[in-house]
Design brief:
The structure is a homodimer. Chain A has about 190 residues and is an alpha+beta fold. Chain A is built from nine helices and eight strands. Chains A, B: It comes from Olivibacter domesticus.
Chain lengths: ~190, ~190
């Protein structure tokens, strides 16, 4: 368990025992119950989270109270309300546990400290930020070019386990379609598969 | 002119003359005529570009040949087909000049060299990547939650000069609406404003 953080970082940069000890002391561990909130809209955003186990949703509630899902975060994902976290403003998004979830927590001050003191960690976070940026651009492209059916099939292909772990109503909020449209896609897909 | 790169970088990190000279030697300057391509679909992606003057569009052509606009890049913007550039794969996007455009060019090898040799530059690119990631997330949110009219008004608010510089057919491809829908929004808006 304790070593997940090190394994995760060392997929990008190698750390000495001393360097890892320095990095590790800036992280705390937190447990969230299914349904619990790690980030609550309008509250301060204290941490960026790295998921150890479990599943989170990053959501926006519009004026009518309808929930829109920006992303799902599972094992090995970093997630927070980044604009609010970086600018030390209250959250405009919420981060909620879909399953019982265990996370590492890193404050902005700690993030800045470990980046400044250890270039390897600045390099690690640059890699992560670039990948996050590319994944977001891919999602923009799928909104511009793909039909709801194609977006559904992209999720099937890229995150197959998500379909087992996420209730259909949440998947619809992620794809930006109604629950009825999703049920139709689901039925058609199973018919094709069978 | 020559100093734009330095001014741009020093909005984030201060460089000594020696450090700037080291960074500067990794950039070349290129001129693109209106209509010219900096990145051509299926060709190698040699550079990330920083716009000195002019205007670019990053586009995806779908199977039917229809053009979808992922972003407009103007003065002070960095742009490339990032997934292709980082992975040294052929482009799946095109980057085209909407106006006569002047850019700095940076190869992936040079990017990696200046990041490795100068932590300040790794820090600079981390800031840029984080901002790019946040801007993309904002755009995803606007696809999930905003009507075409609201997306149009967001552009009016955030990039007012874009409306003067970009033909309406391109703006429609950026907003993900038909040209007819955009004309209706445009007329309604001018009526409200008048």
């Amino acid at each position: 368990m304790e070593e997940m953080l090190r394994r995760h970082i060392e997929q990008v940069v190698r750390l000495s025992d001393e360097e890892y000890a320095f990095v590790r002391q800036h992280f705390s561990i937190k447990y969230g119950k299914k349904g619990g909130l790690l980030i609550d809209k309008s509250e301060p955003v204290r941490y960026v989270y790295l998921v150890i186990s479990g599943l989170l949703k990053l959501v926006y509630h519009d004026k009518t109270g309808r929930e829109h899902i920006i992303s799902f975060a599972m094992e090995d994902w970093w997630e927070t309300d980044y604009p609010a976290w970086f600018s030390r403003q209250p959250a405009s998004l919420s981060l909620q546990c879909i399953e019982d979830t265990q996370v590492y927590c890193l404050s902005l001050d700690s993030y800045q400290t470990i980046c400044a003191k250890l270039q390897k960690m600045e390099h690690f976070f640059l890699q992560k930020a670039n990948r996050g940026h590319m994944a977001s651009q891919e999602r923009i492209l799928s909104f511009l070019t793909a039909t709801p059916r194609e977006r559904y099939e992209q999720v099937l292909r890229k995150q197959p386990t998500l379909l087992q772990r996420v209730p259909k109503v949440l998947l619809a909020a992620y794809l930006g379609v109604s629950r009825e449209t999703l049920s139709r896609l689901w039925r058609n897909n199973n018919r094709t598969a069978g």
